[in-house]
Amino acid sequence: MVKIFYPILLAAATVYGAPAVAGAPSPSPLIGSWAVDTARLTMPPEARPKSVTITYDDVGGGKWRTNVEVVLPDGKKVQAISTYVPDGSATPVEGNLEADVVATRLPEPGVMVTALALGGVPGSMRTYTVAADGKTMTETVVYFKSGGVPAMRTNHFNRVR
Fold first, then answer.
1. Angle 75-77-79 (CA atoms, 0-180°, nearest 5)?
2. What was the pLDDT predicted at 77?
3. Mean of the per-residue pLDDT values for the chain?
4. How far apart are CA 1 and CA 26, in angstroms?
5. DSSP three-state, residue 7
6. C-beta of residue 27 within 8 angstroms of C-beta of residue 17
7. 146: which residues sit within 8 A by CB, 6+ positions away?
8. Angle at 34 between CA 31 and CA 63, to 5 degrees
9. How far is CA 121 from CA 15, 20, 78, 98, 144, in A?
10. Which of 18, 43, 85, 126 could form a disulfide with 11 if both were Cys (CB 3.0 to 4.6 A apart)?
11. For residue 18, what pLDDT is reported?
12. Measured distance CA(81)–CA(160) in Å, rounded
């Protein structure tokens, strides 16, 4: 069951926004920290993580860093970190067992699309959408079940900062 949380780690490991400079566009509404609403995860309550926090930061030079921390049901902490240029190119992820590379792009403000892979094998595709009020975000996950059957699920996040 732990494996279910790792896609959240990896997919969240990238985001894009413009630097906050006077006269420049506002930073992406994705920038900041987000906590998953664990009560709404589509898995049995006993399998849900205690918490999932995703933090997106501008680290300068056109690069961003994403730090995702998951506290598993047994209290163990799992972390994924990625530093990248949000241009859709492949970027390595450290600390994630589900995927080792992501590609991310922001097609419009408040919307992020990311693709995941592990060892050169495609994983899932994710779309993050921030609500107009900037307080919540949804993650639509497109993945494949056994036999190659496509499926989707939605995760819900609340802004922490």
1. 160
2. 95
3. 84
4. 39
5. helix
6. yes
7. none
8. 30
9. 22, 36, 22, 11, 12
10. 126
11. 36
12. 18
pLDDT at 25: 57
Full DSSP string of 85-151: -SSS-EEE-BS-SS-SEEEEEEEETTEEEEEEEETTEEEEEEEEEE-TTSSEEEEEEEEE-GGG-EE
Q: How far apart are CA 2 and CA 4, in angstroms?
A: 5
Residues of the chain with pLDDT under 50: 1-23
Please state whether the predicted TM-score (pTM) of the whole model is above 0.85. Answer: no
Distances (CA, A) of 150 to 3, 4, 125, 144, 147: 18, 16, 11, 4, 9
Question: What is the pLDDT, as a whole number, of residue 127?
Answer: 93
- Contact of 85 with 92, CB cutoff 8 Å: no
Residue type for position 3: K
Single-letter amino acid, residue 138: T
